[in-house]
Amino acid sequence: MSKHFFETLYLSIILLIHIKYLGDPVDFLSWFLNALHLALNGTKKRDSSIVYKTFLGHMRIYTRKIPPLELEESQRSELLHTVEYGETVTQSPFLYLTCDLPPPPLFKDQFTENIIPQVNLYTLLNKFNAVAEKEYKTYKENFMKRFEITELPPYLILYIKRFTKNTFFVEKNPTIVNFPVKNVDFGDILTPEVKARHPYTTYDLVANIVHDGEPGQGTYRVHILHRATGQWYELQDLHVTQILPQMITLTEAYIQIYELRKEANVENGDSKNKKNT
Q1: Distance between CA 202 and CA 180 in Å, rounded?
Q2: Taking every annotated instance into account, which residue ranges of this chain make up the domain USP (predicted)?
Q3: Cβ atoms within 10 Å of 57's Cβ, excluding its own
Q4: Predicted pLDDT of residue 275
């Protein structure tokens, strides 16, 4: 890479970071991966840069328009048979997958006030099983979308969407995601046709970014696996400490990076048994 790229990268980081402003890691991650890809003369082809070779996956997005609710049932039924309201399919590349957390309970009684909501990682991944639908609203029209992963990358990045922004403030979803550190089988969300093209679908966690505190404030921590020793480390600013993998699963995970395991046998048992642990 040229000296010019690193100079541009340094200046861009300085512009992104302000002493009174806590940046969002996913914004920086998205910008950095795309900027690095372009700096390496990358194109739309998968093998055009190390970034795409490592992180690029593909999916199909199925979209259908929802008829206005104020119409009568007969009118809505007629619209559903028109081309405008028919389902469309688009092919889309991705560098990371956005996982949507379920909304936290709005009202809490004295018994549930101190209980932190939890959700299984596999529940979040069902968004990409080609069956589950989610409604997306715009100021003008509403759409139903479902997602089908067609190609898994060697390294898979998950972005767990914790922050919701509106006109007035930013809200944080504190839901804890229960996930195994090893043997996460993404083959369970693939269609049989797509799974047949993937001889390996099991991933291990290698990095985990955590947000602690209130939205717009708080701090970030990073958990990194040292491959040679199998030891996990926690990094926060200039502080580096060892951490047990069991402690990582108790954090408010925000961004995760998984590495594909190209082995016929999975260590420590079948990952499907881990879903219920």
Answers
A1: 12
A2: 1-261
A3: 22
A4: 47
> What are the start-end ranges of the E strands in 192-270?
202-212, 219-226, 231-236, 239-243, 253-260
pTM: 0.82
Per DSSP, the three-state class of 122 is helix
Residue 128: what residue type?
F
The residues, ordered by sequence, that sit 6+ positions from 124 with a Cβ below 8 Å of its Cβ are: 99, 100, 101, 160, 177
Question: Which tokens sit at 155?
Answer: 């390294």
Annotate 64-79 with b (16+ C-beta within 10 A) or e (fewer).
ebbbeeeeeeeeeeeb
In the structure encoding, which two tokens stand for residue 9, read together? 């990268």
- Measured N-to-C along each axis, helices 25-39 and 3-16 cross at an angle, to the nearest 10 degrees, of 160
State residue 79's pLDDT score.
Answer: 77
pLDDT of residue 91: 94
Beta bridge partners of 174: none
Q: Which residues contact 273 (CB under 8 A, 6 or more apart)?
A: none
What is the Cα–Cα distance from 192 to 182, expressed in whole angstroms? 23
Residues of the chain with pLDDT under 50: 18-20, 265-277
Q: Tell me, what's the pLDDT at 26? A: 86
Dihedral angle at the C-alpha atoms of 128, 132, 137, 141, nearest 10 degrees?
110
Q: Which of 154, 162, 246, 240 lies closest to 204, judged by CA?
A: 154
Give the model's pLDDT for residue 55.
Answer: 96
At 276 the pLDDT is 45
User: What is residue 72's predicted lDDT score, i.e. its pLDDT?
Assistant: 74
